[in-house]
Write a structure and sequence with these properties.
Layout lengths: L5 E5 L8 H11 L6 E5 L1 H10 L4 H12 L3 H4 L8 E3 L2 H11 L12 E7 L5 E4 L4 H8 L4 E3 L2 E3 L2 E5 L8 H7 L3 E5 L18 H12 L1 H9 L3 E3 L14 H24 L1
Parallel strand pairs: 1-2, 1-9, 2-4, 3-6, 9-10
Antiparallel strand pairs: 4-5, 4-8, 7-8
Helix pairs in contact: 1-10, 2-6, 5-6
Length: about 260
């Protein structure tokens, strides 16, 4: 099993992406060591925490604390130039969660954060320099957050071009890829019945619809796809962190036999 270079692709999905923590916990318990990580948006954040060597209990505590904060607390409204929210406060929160402005070269597990160049539409893979800047760019939801300037490029959420970046892992040298997709099908409900979608949910669903074809292509690169059942959880339901983590655990447990069988083949 250890002759294989195992890569884990963590997909975009805002609050739903916290299910990645449950997946990581199960893989760890089952003795499946991840050799490299690639993440888009929420997947980049969870990947950054795990790549540092933080244990699962630490990561849980950090995101549960984040979930206790209302979205309004994290917002610093801006005049609509490139986004409704400047993102300065988000960056401060990210810095406290990640534990400072560390470099990719200091991570225990190789990590790539995926962002989108809003000018060219190209995928931008960030795997050098500041982890904080890489995560900040990868989670920059268009319209909601101001774009991030990085090396002369203007970057937004990586989920637009590569929602589950399995292809990035292939380029990094992985020969066995596990992908975690937390995006429900387009036909799935926007969120709970009876609730009119707010502007943030409308933006997120628009991104999801636009990225749907990219999602199918992304998943085709994976050897195993894990899909936590998080469609009923709203994109900004960070107060439901523990539920997201549980769904990640359940989905990973359902896939573990398939993963081990393929690794041993």
């Amino acid at each position: 099993m250890r002759n294989r270079k195992i890569g884990l692709a963590l997909g975009s999905g805002a609050a739903r992406g916290l299910a990645h923590i449950g997946v990581l916990e199960v893989l760890e318990k089952e003795g499946i060591t991840i050799d490299m990580l690639a993440g888009s948006s929420a997947g980049a954040l969870v990947g950054a925490l795990y790549a540092q060597g933080k244990d699962i209990s630490q990561i849980k505590n950090l995101v549960i604390d984040l979930g206790s904060k209302r979205f309004a607390f994290l917002a610093d409204p801006a005049l609509p130039k490139t986004g409704l929210i400047k993102g300065r406060r988000i960056k401060e929160v990210l810095k406290s969660i990640i534990g400072g402005d560390i470099g990719f070269s200091n991570l225990r597990i190789p990590l790539a954060c995926v962002a989108t160049d809003i000018v060219t539409g190209e995928e931008v893979v960030i795997n050098q320099g500041s982890v904080l800047e890489g995560v900040r760019a990868s989670i920059s939801i268009p319209v909601i957050f101001a774009v991030v300037k990085w090396k002369g490029r203007y970057l937004v959420d990586g989920g637009l071009v590569n929602p589950v970046p399995a292809s990035v892992l292939r380029d990094m040298g992985a020969d066995f890829i596990i992908a975690v997709n937390v995006a429900p099908s387009i036909s799935g409900k926007l969120h709970q019945v009876g609730r009119e979608p707010n502007i943030f949910n409308v933006i997120m669903q628009t991104i999801h619809i636009a990225a749907y074809q990219s999602l199918k292509l992304s998943l085709s690169e994976a050897d195993v796809v894990i899909e936590p059942q998080v469609a009923s959880i709203g994109y900004f339901d960070f107060h439901r962190t523990q539920e997201c983590i549980l769904q990640g655990e359940l989905a990973a447990q359902e896939s573990i036999i398939k993963i081990k069988r393929q690794l041993e083949a």
